[in-house]
Records
---
Amino acid sequence: MKIAIGLYFFMFIAFFDLHAQYPILTPFAVSLGAAPAFIGWMMGIYALTHLPGNLIAGHGVDKYGSKRYVVFSLISAGIVLLLQAHVTAPWQLLVLRSISGFVLAFLSPACLALLASLSRDAVTQGKLMAGHGVTHTLASVLSPAVGAFLVKLAGFSLTFQSLGWLLISAGLLAWFTIRGKAVEMQLEVSRANAAAADNSSLLPGVPLVYYLLPLGVACSQGILFFELPLHDGGSSEGILHTGIYFSILSLGSLVTLGMLFLHRVSPYLRALGGVLLLALCFYGLTMPERIPMPVVLFVMGMSKGIIFPAISSLFIEVSGGERMGSVFSFQSIAMSLGSFIGPIVAGQLHLTFSPYFLAFVVLMLLLITLPANRRLPKQPIPVD
């Protein structure tokens, strides 16, 4: 349990830093003279550079365990933020965001794989994944408003420096605290799975169609993260307002993550129901004059609180608990692709077509594409 609490803490710090930047990156890029299309590429390149990091993480976590990748990811991301505090041109921000996307790609697969190795019981694993979701949400409830407030109080440069030092401190703490029997057990299970795996098969035992779930959801989320900061024109005066919007979104997630009885429902059904609710919320955002935006964002957050733990539990179930580093690595790759496509397309269509309606269409197509019945899970590997 101690190792789980420690991982939750490090993920909290990382997610706090990440979400604190959501309401301020777009105004910061605008202050540097960036156009909407460039901002879309800036947000998309962050996701694109996740891909090589995800591929390395999948193999590395299965072979060497999670600790070194958690430490590397936190410290490197902190250094990038320190440099980001001194950029003076849009292209410099683009370069640093691409580096940040690469180094942070290691964190999520490493943490999720270590969490999944803490138990072989499906219910307990579901609770651990929900704990990951709660940690993510708690960090994202406060961080957008805090990030916006810091910029209002101290400016962009000092805000980025503060967030950078916070990540570096968390990375150093992770080096000394992630240890013990759970880490050794993860290494033993990971190496056994790697030795038994078919080297001719690149993908772990999860059908490709299931990776459309994180891809489609991440695409819609990328559209939202691009479009919402522009609601008030991307001006510095609207930063605090945007931060509150993101906090409302996270509060909605916290509500459904606290509904522990949902874990009794099939993760596949939870994922489908959450995607349908998310699609309806995007449709609601296309007519803000009829439905207040805070209401829609709150319900949208509730749908996300259902979807993400359900997807992680579904992948554990379908894969039978084998090669979890690779499973979560490919999940992260799918999310990276979606997060890359979403803001870039939204940036190109921003002035001519509603990106929110595009997200609605993407999610409805996702529901149509997914199979009516999930594949039966493999038998879990017995642990002596």
---
Amino acid sequence: MTGAVRRLRRTYRRLRLGTRLALGLGALSLAVFAVVGTALTAYMRDYLERQLGDQLKLIQTVQAKDAAAHGTVKRKPYYGWYTAVYDVSDDAVTLRRPADVPDDTRAFAGLARAMASSDTELMRTERIHGEGVYRLRGCEVEPGVVLVSAAPVEDVEETVGQLITVQVVVFALALAALVEFGRRMLRRGLKPLSDMAHTAHGIASHDLSESASRLPLRADGRDGGPEVAELRTAFNTMLEHIDDSLAVRAEAELRLRRFVADASHELRTPLMSVRGYADLFQYAAANEPAERDRHLARLRAEAARMGVLLDDLLLLARLDAAEVEAPLRTADTDLVELVLQAADAFRAGHPDHPLTVRAGAGPLRLRLDPQRIRQVLDNLLTNAAVHTPAGTPVSVEVSVAGGAALVRVADAGPGVPAEDRERVFDRFYRVDKARSRDRGGSGLGLPVARSLARAHGGDIDLSGGPGATVFTVRLPLDGGP
């Protein structure tokens, strides 16, 4: 028995949700029909029995007068009904003759004896041997004389049986129609869920390992009600999130490959130079003092260039990793003083670029890393000098706006082309591809500057058009994150 129940449970669990809901609806409807049918049948049986009792009472009213006048009942009741008059004493119960009674009169005599000692009229349902079930009613004609009438209950049972048959047929048809209609309605209502499942299968079959992988599938439709619409919206939102994540991953992979390729290329040149100059020392010409000093100077220059490049890469890696111990040593620093120091260094290193500084009258103290912010300013000023011709004016302005300190580094050079504005902060990216590395740098100055500004809770923006380039450094007045 337990094994059969387990098999039924497993079979039920394998059914589709619509079928399970339809079966549940059918079971609930069957229970409701059973309760309604039982109540209706009980009410109908009780009603018919009361009607039969009323008929007996009405007939006995006439028969009692007949028995009082003639001693027995002369008027015959309905066909199949019985009537008897009994003389009841303490010792015996005697049936008056003639009487229309069945062979088995024990139920009649028992009711007559009980009636003789009762103050109210009695009614019983008894089974008479050889006749069936009868409804018996007794009434007192006069003291010691009792009239007993009996009516068959067969008609009542037949009517109740027909009512039960009609109920079973009607309820069975209604149940079948309800289950079928409910199944169709549930299938239609659950179709959006099936569509979403189909979409999910399509996504599962989609190759997500491709770098530029996108998810063109979405759950469509308007049916299903607000709950399904909410689920559909959440499903599509999830797909959009996955799509965006895949796009970010693809972009990150592309940038990583480009970064590795550019870093390898940038390191390859000084390494080859170092190797070449080292090989020269194998020849006699390299042993001459002047020649040896020149080669050593070039070796030191290439080594220094590799050191700067590696330091920038290490700094960017530490900033990207968001290490617990960030590479910042903050202190209460005057930003105006840092700008003035950077301006003096720029004038000494680039006398061919006139520089204008507008830093306000008083100090502007912030909580920041003075060495790193000075590096940001130096990178921006050097960028202005490297990418503009000699004589191009450069300006630096310090101001406060919107709860932040602003440092604008502007030049009147050729400007940054529109197609390059989105990538000037990419690592190893150069606007002028033909510029030499000695003059154009490694392409890490602006990325390092932006990363340091963001590490302080700020940022760097690029604005301006042809004939003007403006880099704006934004630093929070509260000292950053």
---
Amino acid sequence: MTKLIASLTLSLALAPLLTAADWAQFRGPAGAGVADDQKPPVKFGLKENLAWKVAVPPGASSPIVIGDKIVLTAFEDNKLFTICYSRTDGKELWRKEAKAKKIEPFHPTEGSPAASTPASDGKTVVSYFGSCGLVCYDLDGNEQWKFELPTAVTNNEFGTGTSPVIADGLVLLARDLSKDSAVYAIDLATGSQAWKTERKQKTAFSSPVVWDDGGKKVLIVPGMASLTGYDLQSGKELWAVNKMAAVACTTPVVFKDTLVYSGWSPGGSDFKLPTFDEILKQAGEDKLGHLTKAGAAKTPFGNFFDNNDPNKDGKITREEWAENMKVLAGGENRAVALKPGGKGEIAWSYTKNLPYVPSPVVYRERMYLLKDGPLMTCLDAKTGKPVYEAERVKAGARYYASPVAANGHIYIASLEGTVAVIVAGEDAPDVAYSVKLPEPVRATPAIAHNTLYIRSDKFLYAFTEKK
């Protein structure tokens, strides 16, 4: 009898805590953005298939869904929070503050100190804040441990973007900053450091993924002009692919036995930045010889003036401009697929119509790329050959949220608040439905338990098919 009880206890301990219906990290299962066994509604809005909506504090993190709970992070009144809501009705269940000695510098309209999506193993929730590090809670909001880190400083003080992932009992965090970049593996049970690997790369905003490459688990970390594979258990660098985008914002995707990644940033061959003289001319400050905030407001560069004024003296000199542009030098914009086999060999490469912030989604053998415009490109995920290229979609123009897919459709959500549903598998992007929400959407939607969860700048929406 004792042996039977012990056997049952061991079986329960080893049983998976997450279900197929959960969405437990950034972009859901394996970070792929796909929940093909779920059936979220195709038509939805404020008066259609709305299960509930609840006001949420500011933040850019995506919601995760574990069982009957929804968790996200937020930044309000100069405080950082992890907040849990009921999946049934959106009622707030608990809210816990992560204490920070100093809030990381961030862009006031484009960034957020609560931009990192939490991750869960079905029993605990781990939140990351660039301002203070990792915090682990149980699902009732009881703090389990903290792993403190120095306040993050990113290039141009944009703010943190990376999210943690959980695999094999480890919390994995890729922390590329303006200095002291590193990848961390933290023991999920204890909060102690399992390993740390320093990196030479500077600021990146991507989240890592775990790739089971022929039975060997590899942590894939995008970075400045690079894509690197690390042994999951030791942190040893296994290989690196160079000549990638100078700024990494997107997350790789595992497709069968292959890994695909798409990276783009300004400064590549397909997007030459204006010279300093050209910017001065646009600003009407060519005779002045430096750029002021008032002058920058007359250029497309205006919203990013403060982030590119390193000494905060209210002007950007030629030398400061050149130093800022170094970050973007040497990168190559392209999408790649890597062969299995542990060497980081490229199977195919594609160099056109690449998105800056939205990660690709690979769905039913096809890879979809969403570029501001919006323009959608569809590739055969196995060969990289285009099915269609840069097809215009009737939806919002700018995107921070990544596409997600389920039940034969791809869902895209724009900074203008437009959410569009595109039929997958067609020879052109066929919009089945679109709706404009009253607020911008910058967080990637979640699909779980046959429900589409969308976090806007003010609300968390739950849309589900009403029977």
---
Amino acid sequence: MSSSTATDKEIARKARKAGIASFIGTTIEWYDFYIYGTAAALVFGKVFFSDELSGGVATLLAFVTLWAGFLARPLGGIVFGHLGDRIGRKNTLVITLVMMGIATVGIGLLPTYAQIGMWAPILLVLLRVLQGVAVGGEWGGAVLIASENAPKGKGILYSAFAQQGSPAGNLLSTMAFFFLAALPTPQFMMWGWRIPFLLSGVLVVIGMVIRLKLEESDAMKAVLARNKTVKLPIKEVLRKHWVLVLLGAGALPLAQVTYFKNTFALSWATSELGYERGTFLAIIAIALVVQFIVQPFGAVLVSKIDMRKAMLLMIVPELFLMPAMFFAIRTETFAIAAIGMCLATIPHSMFYGAIAGILARAFPANIRYSGLSLAYQLCSLIVGGGTPVLAQWLLNSSGDVTGVAIAAACYAAVSLVCTLALLKRTGYDPKAPSVAEQSDADELALEQANEAAAQSGTSRIHA
């Protein structure tokens, strides 16, 4: 066996290991994050707020607490982006997993409004903020540990491992509540909803065992070996790459439409339409299975053809399918609602499978964690947590879902424009290095040439 073949096999083995570890870790993190959204739609308005409030107002306030996690996500992105760019990706991923587990189990143990009054929603918000900080630091590191360990030219494909954690975690969350929905309402409201939160403690232990065995990414090893870390990565990102951050954030609203489906639609369908909890959770679960299956094909498509064409193929259908989903749900027919949700899921899930790898290509290695995290969490701050709040407000204001459907189409339109603008700056060819990757390669080649010249006694080569 040649040394080249052995090396290729070793690279492939390490890439698979990093991808699988990234997938399992993000599945646990997103499970914790998503069970909050499901509980906010079904329980929190009744459990953590005064029963003197109307149902619509209590639900709206529950969705505001959901938003608190999104407000905290940029802080997590900044803090852990800084650490990830300074000391490595692996250590930050261990810390964020522990933080998420503590916050989630804490919510499962939290007393109700009837027991401690206003302290209940206050403590709920604080724990949700801790969740937000954790997932804000998690996402960028998980994407990079997979994409940076990938074989050459396959970074976008391997970043999809981390992205698969979102539908997997969401599906686990939905199924947990689906089985608990069979409980009589008094038992479900009293203690049944707490079980998914307490189970997080077990999942975190599993995730820790896996992550502690994870290796640092090769790109970060190279940065550390060459002493090329940046003292304040966030400052460097904002000074030199702020346009990329804004375009990245603008590209991502389509990734947030899941909160139209799995949070707002769940509340709307079970409180104002004729769906039982278990029935609509089954519809969501079917759509999540579809998402898990089709999502990686977005990364495959982007890796095979001109990325502009791939994005048009994925985003344009969502301009019509997501609005149509709401009217399918309004029929109150299981089959029509399920088909409508599944069709709306396909475009944005494929987009989600590809966009992480595209964003990772946009930034240099020594500030990549900070740049990637800031773009994603900026969108989450403005759009993600605000989505169910906006949808519920539109519904409360008009009494009709049409405004919500139009808002969903607008998300797709913004993503399309900003994604195309981002690709114009980073490159369209998935097989060629991006502008940032080529700059890193040129800098490394120059340093190696200078070292070789110094060792041979010739004059130093200058840039």
